[in-house]
Amino acid sequence: MQLTNRKTPKTIILFQFLKRSKVSYAAIASLLKIDMHNHLLPGIDDGAENVATSQSLAQSLQALGYTHTICTPHIMSGMYNNNRTTILEAKQQLDSVENYPITIVNTAAEYMLDEAFLQQLEASDPLLTLYQNNILVEFSYVAAPIMYQDVFFQIQLKGYRPVLAHPERYSYFASNLQNYEGLKAMGCMLQLNALSLGGYYGKTAQNIAIHLLSERLVSYIGTDTHAQRHVQALQQMKIDSKIFELIQQQPLLHQQMLAVFQ
Fold first, then answer.
1. What is the β-pairing status of strands 238-240 and 22-24?
2. What is the 3-state secondary structure (H, E, C) of the chain?
């Protein structure tokens, strides 16, 4: 997909011809220290199938440079009908593992913005938060939720702050990059998938990811690890040193988050 927009994404043009030194993903992981989006909890979504797989994934993340993690399994009506109980039970399986490779500081969720989410939002039980009042939400890859602006408003009325997972992967936003500034303007924070920076999800997602960094719109970077193929791609990924500089310049919340949990 070709990006067309009233606003020229300057870095998308810039990085097409820049030839700089490359940086391994380990440098980024060591900078972030905490992975706030992954699917390490065993057996409850499309991530780790069992405890052994979770251990292997966690060991790979630790080898990259991560020291801490927040687990964020899917809550998606009709597919992954998770709740606080199922998530905490899965976490307890990992708690029983001696010397689990990485420190799990919190269990949250990745909420699909659907009708079931709206019902949960109105219920008395609190939602599972990443950090303080931040909740991780996602859109369908097919189309944005109807009236998502109103949903974000309702989320904030309830005292939460929405964090939109991997916005660079929603192709329906790609034709107008001002959509991302609009999301920020309505109080939504943006979480970038690390693999997007290496082109894992395609060139369009990569270009949008670079644009978001260039505009300082990114609050979080997560691995979104589901399987070994994801950590292997991170291990092999090399990014332009200029992109690493942009990451260092982001208003990221990882260190604030880590300070709260340590």
1. antiparallel
2. CCCCCCCCCHHHHHCCCCCCCEEEHHHHHHHHCEECCECCCCCCCCCCCCHHHHHHHHHHHHHHCCCEEEECCEEECCCECCCHHHHHHHHHHHHCCCCCCCEEEEECCEEECCHHHHHHHHCCCCCCCCECCEEEEECCCCCCCCCHHHHHHHHHHCCCEEEEECHHHCHHHCCCCHHHHHHHHCCCEEEEEHHHHHCCCCHHHHHHHHHHHHCCCEEEEECCECCHHHHHHHHHCEEEHHHHHHHHCCCCCHHHHHHHHC
Listed as ranges, residues in the chain with pLDDT below 50 are 1-2, 4, 8, 13, 17
Cα-based distances in Å from 215 to 65, 159, 176, 205, 246:
26, 27, 14, 15, 9
Taking residue 20's Cβ as centre, other Cβ atoms within 10 Å add up to 13
Q: How confident is the model over 160-206, as pLDDT tens digits?
A: 999 999 999 999 999 999 999 999 999 999 999 999 999 999 999 99
**Fold held by 10-261:** TIM Barrel (3.20.20)
Domain ranges of the chain: 10-261
